[in-house]
Design brief:
The protein is of the alpha/beta class and about 550 residues long. Helix content is about 40%, strand content about 20%. The chain folds into 3 domains: about 25-270, TIM Barrel; about 280-360, no CATH class; about 365-540, 2-Layer Sandwich (Double Stranded RNA Binding Domain). The strands form 4 sheets. It has an 8-stranded parallel barrel with strand order 1-2-7-8-9-10-11-12, surrounded by 6 helices. A hairpin with a 4-residue loop joins strand 19 and strand 20 (about 520-525). The chain is elongated and about 80 Å long. InterPro entries: Aldolase_TIM, dsRBD_dom, DUS-like_FMN-bd, DUS2_DSRM, tRNA-DUS-like, tRNA_hU_synthase_CS.
Length: about 550
């Protein structure tokens, strides 16, 4: 009897897993899909594709190492989940509207690292796809993308690991190999790992869009495997859903994935037929405004939409010169829409801070151990906003000389884990900082020079003001800076000193500063150690 119970349990379990796998595979049957495209498939384009009728949308390839470096932040202002690096860079932004349709495409060459990255994201996506087809030098040299096509054991290890450990469907996307039989053999190996679907681009890693797409190779794969096959690579012949359907029939595939056709006119997914490109472009910009999309990323996508209309479109030259979302709002007569979004965002931020008792100004004023004041402003140096001929540091130095002030003194610390930098600047008895970590010492110093200039009501030389940094907000900053109110909390844990030394710290460390004798003390509680740097005699103890 005991043996009978065990047998029945195992049988029921196998049936359950079989049904579950069928449901996962159904997710990729008879679908029209937005292909993963670097710099294109960010949140605005993905949402736009879904609006027009795409069934699934892939994000741009995310490298496993970068995902593991990210912090997950709930952005209550934008109603998004942001995966951000320590310098504030948003690597991936997603929202609830796409959760059941979003496929994470992961760039990897290591099963353990891929699993760690995928687990970090699996609660925010509908599925995980491994990039095994990207022919770009970055991917190939890193052992990712198309480099995996000739490493069957690694392919098997990566995919099997993810299939066994994740609770979302796992797929992969490949390019064909030069020989048909090798392509089919690879496809069968991939199927054996238990993936839910396989996307096939009908060109080899050495071929480009000008080369013909190998429809017969995709058909051979579709005939050889039982899992759904997603056909890709025929964008130049597809301008509507009818073209996509014809491509699906020709390949015998279960679904179709569109890349450049969607990049040029995302309404290619519409059942009623595509819309005029300029109408689509404005719809894209609305999402870019709503979700505060990166300026340069927005510009790239806009120019791709205008790729064959640059001469006939009067606004095209201005788009080439545009640098900010505000510029695009002005160019396309959407200024009132954009400003309304900014105003709504400001109101929401004010309400949020009123409920939590937070400071909506984003500025902090702290008293340090020696009684000196540290001022932290949420500003940073963005090269695109400044002229090439004059930097904030140069402006601060010139203002200092002209006004007879002492020379600004910068201090930079380097974070041991990822070699990011944070700086402060001592100027006229006050220490100025910002809350960001930068990729270089130079960028960190420029950023605190901006903070110092803004705090003192001086121009930092920006050609264009950030839309969220209004004159009213700056006025509030200055009022708080000049007030007697200080934050008596964690007042000595930032990168502050009064010399030009560099100190390596980690998250378990405290920095204690004395601006009178120009010294900095670094306390590492994890290792029970203390480092004292005194600029007066250049000693380190």
């Amino acid at each position: 009897p005991v043996q009978l119970v065990v047998t029945v349990t195992v049988t029921v379990t196998r049936i359950g897993l079989s049904v579950y796998k069928m449901r996962q595979e159904d997710m990729y049957q008879n679908k029209t899909v937005l292909a993963p495209m670097v710099r294109v498939c960010t949140l605005p384009m993905r949402l736009l594709a879904l609006d027009y009728g795409a069934d699934l949308v892939y994000c741009e390839e995310q490298i496993d190492r970068k995902i593991l470096m990210c912090e997950i932040k709930e952005n209550k202002l934008l109603h998004t989940t942001d995966f951000t690096l320590s310098d504030g860079t948003v690597v991936l932004r997603t929202c609830p509207a796409e959760k059941d349709k979003l496929i994470l495409q992961l760039g990897t060459c290591d099963a353990k690292r891929a699993l760690a990255a995928a687990k970090k994201l699996q609660n925010y996506v509908a599925g995980v796809d491994i990039n095994m087809g990207c022919p770009k030098e970055f991917s190939i040299k890193g052992g990712m993308g198309a480099a995996l096509l000739t490493q069957p054991e690694k392919v098997k290890q990566i995919l099997s690991t993810l299939v066994n450990e994740l609770h979302v469907p796992v797929t992969c996307k490949i390019r064909v190999l030069p020989k048909l039989e090798d392509t089919v053999k690879l496809a069968k190996l991939i199927e054996s790992t238990g993936v839910s679907a396989l996307a096939v681009h009908g060109r080899t890693k050495d071929e480009r869009s000008r080369d013909p797409n190998r429809t017969d190779y995709i058909k051979a794969v579709a005939d050889a495997v039982s899992i759904p096959v997603i056909a890709n690579g025929n964008s130049k012949n597809i301008t509507s859903l009818t073209g996509a359907e014809n491509f699906k029939k020709a390949t015998g595939a279960s679904s179709v994935m569109l890349a450049r056709a969607a990049m040029w006119n995302c309404s290619v997914f519409r059942k009623q037929g595509p819309l005029p490109v300029l109408e689509v472009l404005k719809s894209y910009l609305r999402y870019a405004f709503q979700y505060d999309n990166n300026d340069l990323n927005t510009k790239y996508c806009v120019l791709q939409m205008l790729h064959d209309r640059m001469v006939e479109t009067p606004e095209a030259d201005r788009c080439v010169a545009a640098k900010t979302l505000q510029d695009f709002a002005n160019i396309w007569a959407m200024k009132s829409e954009y400003e309304k979004i900014l105003q709504q965002r400001l109101v929401l931020e004010t309400e949020m801070n009123a409920r939590t008792g937070g400071d909506c100004n984003g500025v902090k004023r702290r008293k340090m151990d020696d009684g000196s004041i540290l001022i932290e402003l949420p500003v940073r140096f963005e090269k695109r906003l400044y002229p090439l001929t004059m930097t904030p540091k140069q402006i601060l130095n010139n203002w200092s000389k002209k006004s007879g002030f002492g020379k600004p003194v910068y201090t930079t610390i380097e974070r041991g884990g990822d070699r990011y930098y944070s700086s402060t600047v001592l100027f006229e008895g006050k220490v100025y900082a910002n809350p960001y970590w930068e990729k270089s010492k130079q960028m960190a110093e420029q950023s605190v020079a901006v903070a110092c200039l803004v705090a003192n009501g001086e121009s930092d030389g920006r050609l264009t003001e950030p839309p969220n940094e209004t004159e009213e907000l700056r006025r509030k900053w200055r009022n708080l800076i000049n007030s007697d109110v200080v934050d008596s909390g964690d007042h000595a844990t930032l990168s502050v000193s009064c010399n030009n030394s560099s100190v390596v710290v980690d998250s378990s460390s405290d920095i204690h500063v004395n601006s009178v004798n120009n010294s900095v003390t670094h306390i590492d509680s994890a290792n029970n150690s203390m480092t004292h740097v005194d600029s007066a005699d250049s000693s380190v103890t």
